[in-house]
């Protein structure tokens, strides 16, 4: 393997990991949608919450699309295997995000066909189903999936399909794996914690602030418990490792634990992220004035998710292992695009900092003034 190719494969797994980490952070929008009826007790309060989330939902949707697009361009074999094989799982995720977009577009329009309550139900569905199923999908990076890969099938003129799914459920079986579901529910409670922190920061209303502060602690307890169970289960589970000499994949006990030991910089990043999230939760839950928790929690979340992606893909680890054919497992080496494609895309990726800068600028412009009840009553709200 050429040194350049080795570098670009690792570079693009970093880009994928960063997009995935940002997506998990931005899921606070979905988490907030599940808290609308919990925090809001009056119509004006719900209007404030919806408009707070409505100013950010496009960031989440766009990041999800870019995440999928980056996977398609950099690791096309994963895209064809997972998106093409586990299509019922991915279609359910996509559908939940489509109804979210429709809801924000039409829920407040006069004379809308379905009525505001129906669109609010759509937002709830997206908040529950979208988060949990995304967690389930990412969980397969650690638990594996039922697929086979045979590149010689490209020579078959009648069925030139490299990857095949070996069960009729096409991704829905991943929900039955307790490890995947555990991660999905963990991310669900994390999103609700971060949504509460976001409301405390973004809405200038004492009643909403106090209710959101209460929700931080209520949702933090199950989140921390489930997160610890997931980390413990992952670090003590058997994993798979690629032999870089002969290209064979074999079972290694405590693979992800040894990944932490053999990549100490990942362990440090993981610990910093965990401490940052816990600091945000504890201080926000017990302070009556602090509103900066979303930033500490957000940065911590990005660091933790980055660490998990690094554990899944670096150090000769198959990031998408096959539960039915070990040698079909996908690594960043055997599933990547050609060197030329990776090089060209790397040039394009240099635009990412400018995109992030624009997001920061747009975010600050939208949040220049916190949302108030007076603003909503003036009729200036959109959602």
Automatic annotation (TrEMBL):
UniProt topology in membrane: Multi-pass membrane protein
Statement: the UniProt record of this protein carries the keyword Chaperone: no
Source organism, top-level taxon: Bacteria
Segments traversing the membrane: 12-36, 57-79, 85-106, 118-142, 181-204, 216-236, 256-282, 294-314, 339-361
Entry keywords, A to Z: Cell membrane, Electron transport, Heme, Iron, Membrane, Metal-binding, Transmembrane, Transmembrane helix, Transport
Any one cellular-component term (Gene Ontology): plasma membrane
InterPro entries with a match to the protein in the record: Cyt-d_oxidase_su2
GO biological process: aerobic electron transport chain
Cell compartments where the protein resides: Cell membrane
Entries under Pfam families matching the protein: Cyt_bd_oxida_II (PF02322)
Family listed: Belongs to the cytochrome ubiquinol oxidase subunit 2 family.
Protein name (database record): Cytochrome bd-I ubiquinol oxidase subunit 2 apoprotein
């Amino acid at each position: 393997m050429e040194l350049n190719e080795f570098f670009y494969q690792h570079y693009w797994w970093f880009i994928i990991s960063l997009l995935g980490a940002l997506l998990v952070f931005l899921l606070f929008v979905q988490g907030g949608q599940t808290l609308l009826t919990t925090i809001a007790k009056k119509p004006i309060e719900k209007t404030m919450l919806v408009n707070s989330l409505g100013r950010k939902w496009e960031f989440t949707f766009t990041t999800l699309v870019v995440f999928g697009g980056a996977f398609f361009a950099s690791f096309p074999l994963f895209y064809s295997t997972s998106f093409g094989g586990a299509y019922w799982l991915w279609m359910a995720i996509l559908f939940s995000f489509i109804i979210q977009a429709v809801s924000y577009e039409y829920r407040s329009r006069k004379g809308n066909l379905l009525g505001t309550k129906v669109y609010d139900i759509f937002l709830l569905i997206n908040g529950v189903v979208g988060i949990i199923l995304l967690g389930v999908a990412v969980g397969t990076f650690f638990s594996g999936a039922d697929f086979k890969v045979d590149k010689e099938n490209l020579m078959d003129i009648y069925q030139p399909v490299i990857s095949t799914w070996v069960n009729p459920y096409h991704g829905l079986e991943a929900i039955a794996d307790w490890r995947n579901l555990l991660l999905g529910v963990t991310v669900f409670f994390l999103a609700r914690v971060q949504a509460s922190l976001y409301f405390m920061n973004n809405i200038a209303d004492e009643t909403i602030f106090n209710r959101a502060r209460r929700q931080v602690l209520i949702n933090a307890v199950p989140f921390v418990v489930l997160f610890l169970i997931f980390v413990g289960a992952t670090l003590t589970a058997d994993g798979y490792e690629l032999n870089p000499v002969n290209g064979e994949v074999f079972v290694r006990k405590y693979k992800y634990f040894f990944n932490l030991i053999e990549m100490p910089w990942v362990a440090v990043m993981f610990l910093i992220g965990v401490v940052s999230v816990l600091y945000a939760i504890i201080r926000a839950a017990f302070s009556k004035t602090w509103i900066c928790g979303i930033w500490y929690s957000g940065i911590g979340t990005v660091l933790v998710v980055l660490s998990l992606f690094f554990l899944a893909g670096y150090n000769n680890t198959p990031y998408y292992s096959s539960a039915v054919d070990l040698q079909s497992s996908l690594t960043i080496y055997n599933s990547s695009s050609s060197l030329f494609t990776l090089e060209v895309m790397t040039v394009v990726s240099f635009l990412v900092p400018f995109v992030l800068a624009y997001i920061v600028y747009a975010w600050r412009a939208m949040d220049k003034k916190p949302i108030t009840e007076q603003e909503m009553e003036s009729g200036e709200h959109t959602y």
